Amino acid sequence: MENKTVLVTGATSGIGLALIDRLLNAGYKPILTARNADKVQALAAEKGVAGYALDVADADAITRVCAQVEQDHGPLWGLVNNAGIWLEGDFDAYAADDIKAVMDTNTMGTINLTHTVLPGMLARGRGSVLNVVSTAALYARKSISVYAASKWAIRGFTGCLEAECAPKGVRVMGFYPGKIASNMYETAGVERDLEVAMTPTQAADMMVTMLSDESMVWSQVSGRALKDYV
Ligand SMILES: NC(=O)c1ccc[n+]([C@@H]2O[C@H](COP(=O)([O-])OP(=O)(O)OC[C@H]3O[C@@H](n4cnc5c(N)ncnc54)[C@H](OP(=O)(O)O)[C@@H]3O)[C@@H](O)[C@H]2O)c1
Prior knowledge:
Elements: E1 5-8, H1 14-25, E2 29-34, H2 37-47, E3 50-53, H3 59-73, E4 78-81, H4 96-124, E5 127-132, H5 145-165, E6 170-177, H6 184-187, H7 200-212, E7 220-223
The structure holds NADP nicotinamide-adenine-dinucleotide phosphate.
The site of NADP nicotinamide-adenine-dinucleotide phosphate has 31 residues, from helix 1, helix 4 and helix 6.
Protein backbone atom coordinates (compact mmCIF):
# COMPACT_ATOMS: atom_id res chain seq x y z
CA MET A 1 0.00 0.00 0.00
CA GLU A 2 1.07 3.58 -0.66
CA ASN A 3 2.69 5.14 2.44
CA LYS A 4 -0.10 7.37 3.74
CA THR A 5 1.10 9.58 6.59
CA VAL A 6 -1.52 10.19 9.29
CA LEU A 7 -0.95 12.53 12.23
CA VAL A 8 -2.84 11.40 15.35
CA THR A 9 -3.27 13.75 18.33
CA GLY A 10 -3.64 12.43 21.87
CA ALA A 11 -1.97 9.19 20.83
CA THR A 12 -0.31 8.13 24.09
CA SER A 13 -3.49 6.63 25.59
CA GLY A 14 -6.92 5.20 24.86
CA ILE A 15 -8.34 5.59 21.36
CA GLY A 16 -5.29 7.39 19.97
CA LEU A 17 -2.82 4.74 21.10
CA ALA A 18 -5.02 1.91 19.81
CA LEU A 19 -5.33 3.77 16.51
CA ILE A 20 -1.54 3.88 16.09
CA ASP A 21 -1.51 0.05 16.21
CA ARG A 22 -4.47 -0.33 13.86
CA LEU A 23 -3.07 2.17 11.35
CA LEU A 24 0.27 0.34 11.38
CA ASN A 25 -1.50 -2.99 10.82
CA ALA A 26 -3.39 -1.50 7.90
CA GLY A 27 -0.19 -0.22 6.25
CA TYR A 28 -0.38 3.48 7.10
CA LYS A 29 2.49 5.60 8.43
CA PRO A 30 1.09 7.03 11.69
CA ILE A 31 2.70 9.99 13.48
CA LEU A 32 2.21 9.74 17.25
CA THR A 33 1.65 13.01 19.16
CA ALA A 34 0.56 14.11 22.65
CA ARG A 35 1.74 16.53 25.33
CA ASN A 36 4.01 14.37 27.49
CA ALA A 37 7.30 14.29 25.55
CA ASP A 38 8.78 11.35 27.48
CA LYS A 39 5.70 9.21 26.89
CA VAL A 40 5.61 10.23 23.23
CA GLN A 41 9.25 9.23 22.70
CA ALA A 42 8.90 5.94 24.62
CA LEU A 43 5.72 4.86 22.82
CA ALA A 44 6.94 6.00 19.42
CA ALA A 45 10.12 3.95 19.89
CA GLU A 46 8.10 0.93 21.09
CA LYS A 47 5.77 1.10 18.08
CA GLY A 48 8.51 1.99 15.58
CA VAL A 49 6.82 5.21 14.47
CA ALA A 50 7.73 8.90 14.53
CA GLY A 51 6.62 10.86 17.58
CA TYR A 52 6.38 14.58 18.36
CA ALA A 53 5.36 16.37 21.56
CA LEU A 54 2.34 18.48 20.71
CA ASP A 55 -0.09 20.35 22.94
CA VAL A 56 -3.08 21.05 20.71
CA ALA A 57 -4.16 23.87 23.04
CA ASP A 58 -1.01 25.77 21.98
CA ALA A 59 -1.62 27.37 18.57
CA ASP A 60 2.08 28.26 18.05
CA ALA A 61 3.12 24.70 18.82
CA ILE A 62 0.65 23.43 16.21
CA THR A 63 2.24 25.61 13.51
CA ARG A 64 5.77 24.64 14.54
CA VAL A 65 5.17 20.88 14.89
CA CYS A 66 3.16 20.56 11.68
CA ALA A 67 5.94 22.31 9.74
CA GLN A 68 8.50 19.95 11.31
CA VAL A 69 6.41 16.85 10.58
CA GLU A 70 5.95 17.84 6.93
CA GLN A 71 9.66 18.62 6.62
CA ASP A 72 10.53 15.20 8.08
CA HIS A 73 7.84 13.06 6.46
CA GLY A 74 6.38 15.00 3.53
CA PRO A 75 2.75 16.03 3.11
CA LEU A 76 0.15 14.62 5.49
CA TRP A 77 -2.45 12.36 3.89
CA GLY A 78 -4.51 12.24 7.08
CA LEU A 79 -5.17 14.09 10.32
CA VAL A 80 -6.99 12.52 13.27
CA ASN A 81 -8.11 15.14 15.79
CA ASN A 82 -8.43 12.82 18.76
CA ALA A 83 -6.91 14.69 21.74
CA GLY A 84 -9.59 15.51 24.26
CA ILE A 85 -10.29 15.91 27.95
CA TRP A 86 -13.37 15.30 30.11
CA LEU A 87 -15.09 17.67 32.53
CA GLU A 88 -18.13 16.67 34.57
CA GLY A 89 -20.23 18.29 37.29
CA ASP A 90 -22.50 21.24 37.88
CA PHE A 91 -21.64 24.16 35.63
CA ASP A 92 -21.69 26.70 38.46
CA ALA A 93 -19.01 24.70 40.30
CA TYR A 94 -16.53 24.56 37.40
CA ALA A 95 -13.22 26.41 37.74
CA ALA A 96 -12.65 28.94 34.95
CA ASP A 97 -9.30 27.31 34.10
CA ASP A 98 -10.98 23.92 33.61
CA ILE A 99 -13.57 25.42 31.25
CA LYS A 100 -10.79 27.07 29.25
CA ALA A 101 -8.74 23.87 29.09
CA VAL A 102 -11.67 21.86 27.70
CA MET A 103 -12.54 24.44 25.07
CA ASP A 104 -8.87 25.07 24.13
CA THR A 105 -8.17 21.34 23.78
CA ASN A 106 -11.36 19.78 22.43
CA THR A 107 -12.58 22.67 20.31
CA MET A 108 -9.80 25.10 19.43
CA GLY A 109 -7.21 22.32 19.20
CA THR A 110 -9.24 20.60 16.52
CA ILE A 111 -10.04 23.83 14.68
CA ASN A 112 -6.47 25.19 14.78
CA LEU A 113 -4.84 21.94 13.72
CA THR A 114 -7.30 21.53 10.87
CA HIS A 115 -6.69 25.17 9.87
CA THR A 116 -2.96 24.42 9.64
CA VAL A 117 -3.18 21.15 7.73
CA LEU A 118 -6.19 21.64 5.46
CA PRO A 119 -4.73 24.18 2.98
CA GLY A 120 -2.10 21.66 1.87
CA MET A 121 -4.72 18.94 1.45
CA LEU A 122 -6.97 21.26 -0.56
CA ALA A 123 -4.03 22.32 -2.77
CA ARG A 124 -3.29 18.64 -3.45
CA GLY A 125 -6.99 17.85 -3.93
CA ARG A 126 -6.60 14.94 -1.55
CA GLY A 127 -6.63 14.24 2.18
CA SER A 128 -8.67 12.99 5.10
CA VAL A 129 -9.51 14.65 8.42
CA LEU A 130 -11.20 12.49 11.05
CA ASN A 131 -12.51 14.25 14.14
CA VAL A 132 -13.23 12.21 17.25
CA VAL A 133 -16.42 13.80 18.50
CA SER A 134 -18.75 11.99 20.96
CA THR A 135 -22.33 10.96 21.52
CA ALA A 136 -22.24 13.98 23.88
CA ALA A 137 -22.57 16.07 20.70
CA LEU A 138 -25.80 14.26 19.77
CA TYR A 139 -27.86 14.91 22.92
CA ALA A 140 -28.04 17.27 25.89
CA ARG A 141 -27.95 16.09 29.49
CA LYS A 142 -27.01 17.45 32.90
CA SER A 143 -23.47 17.55 34.30
CA ILE A 144 -21.57 17.77 31.01
CA SER A 145 -22.41 21.30 29.85
CA VAL A 146 -18.91 22.42 28.85
CA TYR A 147 -17.69 19.06 27.51
CA ALA A 148 -20.88 18.86 25.44
CA ALA A 149 -20.40 22.46 24.25
CA SER A 150 -16.85 21.64 23.17
CA LYS A 151 -18.07 18.65 21.14
CA TRP A 152 -21.28 20.21 19.74
CA ALA A 153 -19.01 22.92 18.32
CA ILE A 154 -16.91 20.26 16.60
CA ARG A 155 -20.02 18.51 15.29
CA GLY A 156 -21.00 21.76 13.55
CA PHE A 157 -17.46 22.42 12.40
CA THR A 158 -17.09 18.92 10.99
CA GLY A 159 -20.41 18.92 9.14
CA CYS A 160 -19.81 22.31 7.56
CA LEU A 161 -16.26 21.42 6.48
CA GLU A 162 -17.48 18.09 5.11
CA ALA A 163 -19.77 19.95 2.70
CA GLU A 164 -17.13 22.57 1.91
CA CYS A 165 -14.20 20.23 1.27
CA ALA A 166 -15.69 17.07 -0.27
CA PRO A 167 -16.20 18.72 -3.68
CA LYS A 168 -12.48 19.58 -3.56
CA GLY A 169 -11.43 15.97 -2.91
CA VAL A 170 -10.79 16.27 0.83
CA ARG A 171 -12.85 14.24 3.31
CA VAL A 172 -13.73 15.67 6.72
CA MET A 173 -15.48 13.08 8.89
CA GLY A 174 -16.76 12.74 12.44
CA PHE A 175 -16.71 9.70 14.72
CA TYR A 176 -19.22 9.79 17.60
CA PRO A 177 -18.35 7.12 20.16
CA GLY A 178 -20.29 6.48 23.35
CA LYS A 179 -18.46 5.38 26.47
CA ILE A 180 -14.98 3.95 25.89
CA ALA A 181 -12.81 2.09 28.38
CA SER A 182 -9.90 4.55 28.43
CA ASN A 183 -8.16 6.74 31.03
CA MET A 184 -10.26 9.81 30.16
CA TYR A 185 -12.59 9.72 33.17
CA GLU A 186 -9.92 8.75 35.68
CA THR A 187 -7.64 11.52 34.43
CA ALA A 188 -10.50 13.94 35.07
CA GLY A 189 -10.96 12.53 38.58
CA VAL A 190 -14.31 10.94 37.75
CA GLU A 191 -15.35 7.37 38.61
CA ARG A 192 -17.04 5.53 35.77
CA ASP A 193 -18.18 1.92 35.30
CA LEU A 194 -16.24 0.93 32.20
CA GLU A 195 -17.64 -2.61 32.10
CA VAL A 196 -20.36 -1.16 29.87
CA ALA A 197 -17.97 0.58 27.49
CA MET A 198 -16.56 -0.24 24.06
CA THR A 199 -12.81 -0.80 23.86
CA PRO A 200 -10.33 1.65 22.36
CA THR A 201 -9.45 -1.03 19.80
CA GLN A 202 -13.07 -1.31 18.66
CA ALA A 203 -13.15 2.45 18.19
CA ALA A 204 -9.83 2.37 16.32
CA ASP A 205 -11.03 -0.39 13.99
CA MET A 206 -14.08 1.70 13.08
CA MET A 207 -11.87 4.72 12.45
CA VAL A 208 -9.53 2.78 10.16
CA THR A 209 -12.59 1.62 8.22
CA MET A 210 -13.73 5.25 7.88
CA LEU A 211 -10.29 6.31 6.66
CA SER A 212 -9.61 3.45 4.29
CA ASP A 213 -12.00 3.88 1.34
CA GLU A 214 -11.17 7.24 -0.21
CA SER A 215 -14.31 7.15 -2.33
CA MET A 216 -16.50 7.37 0.79
CA VAL A 217 -17.23 10.17 3.23
CA TRP A 218 -18.52 8.64 6.47
CA SER A 219 -20.38 11.61 7.92
CA GLN A 220 -21.51 10.74 11.44
CA VAL A 221 -20.51 7.26 12.49
CA SER A 222 -21.55 6.46 16.03
CA GLY A 223 -21.47 3.45 18.33
CA ARG A 224 -22.02 2.25 21.89
CA ALA A 225 -21.51 -1.02 23.69
CA LEU A 226 -24.71 -3.10 23.88
CA LYS A 227 -24.37 -3.23 27.66
CA ASP A 228 -24.38 0.59 27.76
CA TYR A 229 -28.14 0.56 26.99
CA VAL A 230 -29.24 -1.05 30.25
N1 LIG B 1 -13.50 7.75 26.70
C1 LIG B 1 -14.73 7.97 26.29
O1 LIG B 1 -15.71 7.46 26.86
C2 LIG B 1 -14.97 8.83 25.08
C3 LIG B 1 -16.26 8.86 24.52
C4 LIG B 1 -16.52 9.66 23.43
C5 LIG B 1 -15.50 10.44 22.90
N2 LIG B 1 -14.26 10.42 23.46
C6 LIG B 1 -13.23 11.27 22.89
O2 LIG B 1 -12.18 10.44 22.43
C7 LIG B 1 -10.95 11.19 22.39
C8 LIG B 1 -9.85 10.35 23.01
O3 LIG B 1 -10.18 10.12 24.37
P1 LIG B 1 -9.69 8.84 25.19
O4 LIG B 1 -10.93 8.27 25.80
O5 LIG B 1 -8.82 7.98 24.36
O6 LIG B 1 -8.87 9.60 26.35
P2 LIG B 1 -7.51 9.29 27.11
O7 LIG B 1 -7.27 7.84 27.25
O8 LIG B 1 -7.57 10.16 28.32
O9 LIG B 1 -6.40 9.87 26.10
C9 LIG B 1 -6.32 11.23 25.83
C10 LIG B 1 -5.05 11.53 25.05
O10 LIG B 1 -5.06 12.93 24.72
C11 LIG B 1 -3.84 13.51 25.16
N3 LIG B 1 -4.09 14.91 25.44
C12 LIG B 1 -4.83 15.45 26.44
N4 LIG B 1 -4.80 16.80 26.34
C13 LIG B 1 -4.04 17.09 25.24
C14 LIG B 1 -3.63 18.30 24.63
N5 LIG B 1 -3.96 19.51 25.11
N6 LIG B 1 -2.85 18.23 23.52
C15 LIG B 1 -2.49 17.03 23.03
N7 LIG B 1 -2.84 15.86 23.57
C16 LIG B 1 -3.59 15.90 24.67
C17 LIG B 1 -3.37 12.65 26.33
O11 LIG B 1 -1.97 12.67 26.54
P3 LIG B 1 -1.22 13.88 27.30
O12 LIG B 1 -2.04 14.17 28.52
O13 LIG B 1 0.15 13.39 27.58
O14 LIG B 1 -1.20 15.01 26.33
C18 LIG B 1 -3.77 11.27 25.83
O15 LIG B 1 -2.81 10.76 24.93
C19 LIG B 1 -11.27 12.51 23.09
O16 LIG B 1 -11.48 13.52 22.13
C20 LIG B 1 -12.56 12.23 23.84
O17 LIG B 1 -13.31 13.39 24.07
C21 LIG B 1 -13.98 9.63 24.53
